[in-house]
Amino acid sequence: MDSALRYLTFDLGAESGRALLGTLQDDRIALEEVHRFPNEPQRILNRFHWDTVRLFAEIQNGLARCVREHPGELAGIGVDTWGVDFALLDRNDDVLGLPYHYRDSRTDGVMEKVFAIVPRDEIYRRTGIQFMQLNSLYQLTAMRLAESPILDIAQTFLMTPDLINYWLTGVKVNEFTNATTTQFYDPRQGGWARDMLEKLGIPSHFLGPIVPPGTVLGELHQTVRDQTGASAVRVIAPATHDTGSAVAAVPASGEEGWAYVSCGTWSLVGVEWPEPVINDRTLACNLTNEGGVRGTFRLLRNVMGLWLLQQSRLAWSKAGRTYDYGELATMAGDAPAFAALLDPDDPSFLMPPDMPQAIRQYCVRTGQKPPADVAATVRCIIEGLALKYRWVIERLEEVTGRAISTVHIIGGGSRNTMLCQATADATGKRVLAGPVEATALGNIIVQALATGAVVSLEEGRAMIGRSFPLIEYQPMATETWQEPYERFLKLLTV
Questions:
Q1: Are residues 278 and 194 in the same domain?
Q2: Helix (H) or strand (E) holding 487
Q3: CA distance 410 to 457
Q4: Are 176 and 58 contained in the same domain?
Q5: Three-state DSSP class for residue 214
Q6: Pairing mode, strands 28-38 and 16-25
Q7: Is 343 a catalytic residue?
Q8: pLDDT of residue 2
Q9: CA distance 219 to 50
Q10: What pTM value is reported for the model?
Q11: Burial letters for 176-204: b for 16+ Cβ neighbours within 10 Å, e otherwise?
Q12: Cα separation of 216 and 232, whole Å?
């Protein structure tokens, strides 16, 4: 590739969103942040909503800034976000109500009500998706149980990135990787599990066509061009689920037996696999089969992730003690090892008003001495995450029959040296950390595949490997993790 090609990616996470400009030239990728903005969900009375209109405004701000500060042709624009959340549109294509946040309490207890109508094992056999109360299936059921009139008048179902793409282009479709997170997509049939929804009294006529990642949706709508000064650039659906984009960026160059931890607010621990793995054992382990790039599947487990650390830091900040993440890691290094253990996926950590207090209460409830200070709390979180990663990786080896030798930690968590080393020590496996901006890079690679600038996913991954340094962590003192791991197993909620 002689001439430079430029792709703009919008990566929306739970805490913030970014516009990043990727330039492909001489078989390398350069990445530059153009615009960063907070993602601030809003609590209104007793409900928790995304401020989706504000996010779209910031996307337009980012595009306008790119046009001003980086003039020149764009080869494509791609948007990725988190999974499961959605909007419903009426017959005039207006959004019905404020889009809900997946941590809203309306889904409390809903899974059990669903299982009374459609058994748990039947749902898993159809969808292969991990059971989490935040899944779209339980959000829609909560609306039906509340007799929401929105369900009766809705004509279109769009997940968050699909909605943004509709506002950018006027084209309404559902992208594959995000559609699979709903828990009403049937991966073996290759379409929506409409009959399952109908058993639950949920209409399915509003579910639209599903397109693969790398689909060119169309040109920017004229209203967006007028607002931003942009030209008629193509909007491309990448893997719109941020984990799907992140996994596309794993710099694994033909190596056998690798796993990934896409580490941010959530930790997604998994392997890339050519087909869904749906059986009694994956059900028992609550493993999920989410869609990937080029027809692959991400066999993985969602782990609560750095959410515990983010929310603890927020609580300490509100109490007048402000720390950056580097300070917290340094402090944790001086705290006693394995003093208290936690399962990061305990339901009490989903949305507590005070995370450090929730951790203390968890320790008391499980017969452990609670962490005495900030340092001990951080160490408890990091060790809990590393132990959970080990458990998931062992289950992945079991259900696939493939030994894992290397764990790629990608995303923001790859900068947490303590977590990376703890993962190597807990698992006994080599860890390669990086790239930090895996989601944006995977988004760009899929755009490049769509435009023919990159011919294969392997070529794109090799390009990322050449462009961004990786940090290697070798396991040390692995034997010291065995007794804590045995204690940890007794805490598991699976």
A1: no
A2: helix 482-489
A3: 17
A4: yes
A5: coil
A6: antiparallel
A7: no
A8: 54
A9: 26
A10: 0.96
A11: bbbbbbbbbbbbeeeebbeebbeebebbe
A12: 13
- The tens digit of pLDDT for each residue in 213-266 reads 999 999 999 999 999 999 999 999 999 999 999 999 999 977 779 999 999 999
Clarify whether residues 77 and 169 are in a common domain. yes
Q: To which residue do tokens 């941590």 refer?
A: 103
**Confidence band for 41, pLDDT divided at 50, 70 and 90:** very high
Whether 178 and 267 map to the same domain: the answer is no
- Looking at the fold, whether 117 and 174 belong to one and the same domain comes out as yes
Under a CB-based contact definition with an 8 Å cutoff, are residues 316 and 374 in contact?
yes
Question: Rounded to whole angstroms, how far apart are CA atoms 243 and 84?
Answer: 12
* Share in percent of the chain as helix, strand, coil (round to 5): 40, 20, 35
DSSP string computed for 386-455: HHHHHHHHHHHHHHH-----EEEEESGGGG-HHHHHHHHHHHTSEEEE--TTHHHHHHHHHHHHHHTSSS
| Number of separate domains in the chain | 2
Residues with Cβ < 8 Å from 437, sequence gap 6 or more? 11, 20, 31
Q: Which domain holds residue 420?
A: 251-434+470-494
CATH (domain of 176): 3.30.420.40
Tokens at residue 226, please?
């007028």
Which pLDDT tens digit goes with each residue over 276-309?
999 999 999 999 999 999 999 999 999 999 999 9
Residues 259 and 110 in one domain: no
- Identify whether residues 233 and 205 lie together within a single domain: yes
- Name the H helices within 272-428: 280-284, 307-318, 325-333, 355-365, 374-400, 417-427
The C-alpha atoms of residue 121 and residue 177 are separated, in whole angstroms, by: 22
Q: Which of 104, 162, 242, 343 is the catalytic position?
A: 242
Q: Which two tokens stand for residue 349?
A: 């950590």
Query: CA 439 to CA 268: how far, in whole Å?
Result: 12
SS3 296: coil
- Cα–Cα separations (whole angstroms), residue 231 to 6, 215, 438, 451: 14, 19, 27, 17
Q: Which amino acid makes up residue 185?
A: Y
Residue 178 inside a domain? The answer is yes
Query: CA triplet 389, 313, 108: central angle to 5 degrees?
Result: 65
User: Angle between the 417-427 and 374-400 helix axes, to the nearest 10 degrees?
Assistant: 40
Q: Are residues 319 and 385 in the same domain?
A: yes
Give the integer Cα–Cα distance in Å for 491 and 493: 7
